[in-house]
Write a structure and sequence with these properties.
The protein is 43% helix and 18% strand. It starts with a helix and ends in an 8-residue tail after the last helix. It has 2 domains: 88 residues, Phosphorylase Kinase, domain 1 (2-Layer Sandwich), CATH 3.30.200; 166 residues, Aminoglycoside phosphotransferase (APH), C-terminal lobe (Aminoglycoside 3'-phosphotransferase, Chain: A, domain 2, Alpha-Beta Complex). The radius of gyration is 20 Å and the shape is globular. It is α+β, with helices and mostly antiparallel strands.
């Protein structure tokens, strides 16, 4: 109840003094999100971020790139740094992973998803600097340290080999990327798909943003891969290589997070 009261007080201060709570549910890493009703904006979402970094990242995304998605994403209504929070329009529907759709509807949903991500990528100009391949290789060393004894010497060598192969592909252009593009963040309602949750959104290698789909969804559903790529565009040989190398990076970070933080490690 305390969390709900804090979120509601924020909504009342930032947007509508007469806002009423509708429901609350868990967010990422122990955070909570409140759905509230307002007079002028209908239902809204109040989200308190777990860090200023995530807060500034999501606010920047909403102000800079998300408007390109039009009505296929929430709109930013209010923001504050103390506490780091946003109020956005609520998106009606159910996460795509929570719906049982017939094959035709599901393929249509993934066609829409491909178009949404392609539009997000196009919302900012390509960047070649800084070198994102070098940055990812440096982050891999951080996550190797975080993983500690959970990763074998052979696995460490394998990850480093893939990071070096990734660096050998440079220079690669970076584009605005969602970086948590999964069915749970694709909201389905009456045949329409909308994209939510932009706290990870920033410039990165576009193929890297496909890693979770490529490793967790597409292996079991090649038809959905085909539907997605029909609108997103076919992957190049370089895209396939980035996917392969970054899949090892993604696996490493998952393993390291299971191990928990190590003392003295950088964040």
């Amino acid at each position: 109840m305390a969390d709900v009261n804090v979120h509601l007080a924020l909504c009342q201060r930032l947007l509508d003094a007469d806002a009423k709570p509708v429901t609350s549910y868990p967010g990422h890493a122990g955070t909570r999100v409140l759905r509230a009703s307002t007079a002028d904006h209908g239902d809204v979402i109040v989200k308190i971020h777990r860090s200023l970094e995530r807060h500034h990242q999501e606010v920047h995304a909403y102000r800079t790139w998300v408007p390109a998605l039009g009505d296929r994403a929430p709109r930013l209504l209010a923001t504050t740094d103390d506490p780091p929070a946003i109020v956005i329009t609520a998106v009606s529907g159910v996460p795509l992973n929570g719906r049982q759709l017939d094959p035709e509807a599901e393929q249509s949903a993934y066609q829409q998803a491909g178009q949404l991500l392609r539009t997000l990528h196009a919302a900012g100009p390509p960047r070649l600097e800084p070198d994102w391949t070098a940055w990812l290789a440096e982050r891999a060393e951080y996550w190797i340290h975080q993983a500690g004894d959970r990763i074998t010497a052979a696995r460490r060598a394998d990850v480093r080999a893939h990071m070096q192969a990734l660096r050998d592909l440079a220079p690669l252009p970076a584009l605005p990327c969602h970086l948590d593009f999964m069915p749970r963040n694709l909201i389905y309602s009456d045949g329409t798909v909308r994209l939510i949750d932009f706290e990870h959104t920033r410039y990165d290698l576009p193929a890297r943003g496909l890693v979770r789909l490529a490793t967790r969804v597409w292996p079991h559903r090649p038809d959905l891969r085909a539907s997605f790529l029909q609108t997103y565009g076919q992957l190049s040989t370089v895209d396939d290589a980035v996917l392969e190398h970054c899949a090892h990076f993604d696996n490493l970070t998952s393993l390291a997070r299971q191990a928990g933080p190590r003392r003295g490690a950088d964040s």
